[in-house]
Design brief:
With about 150 residues, the chain is of the alpha+beta class. The protein has 7 helices and 6 strands. The protein is elongated. It comes from Azospirillum melinis.
């Protein structure tokens, strides 16, 4: 896992879900529902301006009693979010996300959004890494031809 890069090892061929700062919270909620996602990047062109997540909408819009049809993303987004470069490792992303309690982290190059990694993406990497480690240790301890079925026969 330490050597897996965010792009292309963790995410690749990603279709970014972006909206401009002048879009409404309703626009973001509709896009999230259509694409079954939990976060939208707020961009002007490809330039990353912020991120809006389901959590943001719950805390900053619903709990605050704001109207999603008139509330602009620019007023509820997390502006200038932390980002990582595509060459960053999965471990770097996991560390940053854990320290700051993020579930989504934009990937950017020179201020331009190129991707977004989620905690779910990183969970899949960790799981694969742990499964590989387990197989490697079993092969070392019991020999490369070891399997539970072979010992039953």
């Amino acid at each position: 896992m330490p050597t897996r890069r965010l792009m292309p090892d963790v995410i690749k061929n990603q279709d970014l879900s972006c909206l401009p700062p002048g879009a409404t919270v309703r626009d973001a909620a509709t896009l999230m529902a259509q694409k079954r996602i939990a976060a939208v990047l707020v961009t002007e062109g490809r330039t990353l301006k912020g991120i809006v997540t389901e959590r943001d909408m719950t805390a900053r819009v619903v709990a605050a009693g704001l109207d999603p049809d008139t509330t602009l993303l620019s007023s509820v987004m997390t502006a200038d979010p932390d980002t990582l470069e595509p060459s960053a490792t999965a471990l770097e992303a996991l560390d940053l996300m854990e320290r700051h309690h993020y579930r989504h982290l934009p990937i950017a190059v020179d201020g331009e959004a190129v991707g977004m990694v989620s905690i779910r993406d990183l969970f899949a990497v960790v799981r694969t890494h742990l499964e590989d480690e387990l197989r490697s240790r079993e092969a070392y301890m019991f020999g490369s031809g070891y399997s539970a079925e072979a010992t039953l026969g």
